[in-house]
Amino acid sequence: MHAPERLHCTRIVATPTALDTAAWPGGAVVLRVAADEALVAAPVELDVVSDPHAIVEPETAFCGVWVEVEEALAFLERECDWELPTERPAFAQGAVAGLPVKLWFAADGDDRVLFVVPAPFVVDFVERWS
Amino acid sequence: MTIRRLRISCPHCGVRAVEEFVHGEIPTIPEGIVEPEARDLDRAFMHTNAEGVVVERWFHAFGCRRWLTLARDTRTNDIPDNRG
Q1: Pair B45, A76: CB distance under 8 Å
Q2: What ipTM was assigned to the predicted interfaces of this complex?
Q3: Which of residues 76-95 of A touch B (CB under 8 A)?
Q4: Distance from CA of A91 to the nearest CA of B (A)
Q5: In chain A, how many domains are there?
Q6: Are A92 and B20 an interchain contact pair (Cβ–Cβ within 8 Å)?
Q7: pLDDT string in tens for chain B (84-residue length)
Q8: What does residue B37 show for φ and ψ, rounded to 5 degrees?
């Protein structure tokens, strides 16, 4: 695994309906971290969501690394005690190796998994991976 | 009586171990305590720790970072209406 690198994301807090209907930038990874919050791994314009009270802010508090799915699943089998999603693409989040980790399983045909880790935990994450 | 390992079903993230959550008791202050400072003291330090079904708040710190409310039987860790 390569060392996770700083992600330049956009955090959007808006109504669930506005997030459901938003037109995200093409090809951007959109992590729906909560019903009313999304983390988009790309710059996003303020008017991307229809909610006039939406909060759209740049977010650089996370680091991410793409990992081949076989390597990722081997690690997750060892370090994750909750059920992983089987559909693709899919988003999941929770404790992995004792750290709060977000996972993005790419669509079929792209056999990679994106691990998103809060920047302060990157050192621990790398240590626990090895 | 069997005490289960506590697993909580987060409505957004799914079933997770209790270690992913932070417990948030909903404080109940006896009506007999009327002085504001005494009420603050009771709220901060006098945890109810009731035996039986209690309504609690849990914060999913490792996941969606949202609060959820559930009822838990403190004798068995049973959570009605919870898939965990």
Answers
A1: no
A2: 0.91
A3: 81-83, 92-95
A4: 9
A5: 2
A6: no
A7: 677 788 999 999 999 999 999 998 888 899 999 999 999 999 989 888 889 998 899 999 999 999 999 999 999 988 887 644
A8: -70, -40
